[in-house]
Write a structure and sequence with these properties.
By secondary structure, the protein is of the alpha/beta class. Helix content is 49%, strand content 10%. Helix 2 (32-40) crosses helix 5 (77-85). Bound molecules: zinc ion.
């Protein structure tokens, strides 16, 4: 297989894996038209398709698809034998079989919950399948299997779901983080930077008070001595008056006791 083709298949199958939860073994829902085309072009479905998809596959069909082939006569006998080899999934039409295309569509439902890959050459069925999101379509182009690129419906559904879940999840996660106090620095809204020159590229302004201090170089290893501020003790007024009186009396006593001084 050419690299370009390999990349294309990988891209398409990964779309369904990532957006719609497809997993191996891939469930291939095959109808009579696909088996008929494979037989005509000598394509071995059981060998070629897993190799093409690079993964394990389960080949499946429905009872309605088999019964439709049986009613179409001997020309399709070979295709019928191939189809009968595959596993039959219950379609819910037991006792009241419907057309193969209708049955396959009913198996898909609205969102293809069982992750089927539809293998058909029926153009009408292909058109209807494209309108259901999350349904890969596989058909044969002569001898070459071709997994069609995701339809518009699938792309749209995947985009809407991703954007919706993303927003809801973000809000819920941030709310929980805020409640638990786990809001990291990255999650917090960033503060706007102040405009102006980069402070790291500018010289620091020298304060006038620091100029004198900067001139006095400290000796290395010498502990910094903190200057203690003197506390001014306020003496109450009555104490001041008492002290003044005491001082006057003392001076007066000294004067009289020592008149010659
Ligand atoms: Zn059915």
């Amino acid at each position: 297989m050419k690299i370009k083709r390999y990349k294309k298949v990988n891209k398409n199958i990964n779309f369904y894996i990532n957006n719609f939860g497809f997993r191996q073994p891939y469930q291939l829902l095959v109808d009579g038209t696909f088996c008929f085309a494979a037989l005509n072009n000598q394509v071995n479905i059981a060998d070629n398709i897993p190799r093409y998809l690079h993964g394990e596959t389960k080949l499946l069909t429905t009872q309605c698809a088999v019964m439709e082939m049986e009613t179409l006569g001997s020309k399709l006998h070979g295709a019928l034998l191939i189809l009968k080899k595959y596993g039959i999934h219950k379609c819910g039409h037991e006792g009241k079989p419907v057309a193969g295309s209708k049955c396959l569509l009913s198996m898909l439902g609205n969102h293809n919950e069982n992750h089927y890959i539809i293998c058909t050459q029926d153009r009408d069925l292909q058109e209807k399948v494209r309108n259901i999101p999350g349904v890969p379509l596989l058909y044969l182009h002569i001898k070459t299997p071709n997994l069609e690129q995701p339809s518009e419906a699938s792309e749209k559904f995947a985009k809407e779901r991703l954007s919706g879940i993303g927003e809801i999840e973000k809000v819920a996660i941030n709310k929980l983080k805020t409640e638990k106090g786990l809001l990291s620095q990255e999650d917090k809204p960033k503060k706007k930077r102040k405009k102006g020159p980069n402070p790291l590229s500018c010289k620091k302004r020298k304060k006038p008070g620091n100029l004198q201090n900067n001139n006095i170089k400290k000796k290395e290893g010498q502990p910094e001595i903190e200057k203690k501020k003197r506390k001014r003790i306020k003496i109450p007024q009555h104490v001041q008056e008492a002290l003044l009186g005491l001082f006057c009396w003392t001076s007066f006593g000294i004067y009289f006791c020592c008149p010659f001084l």
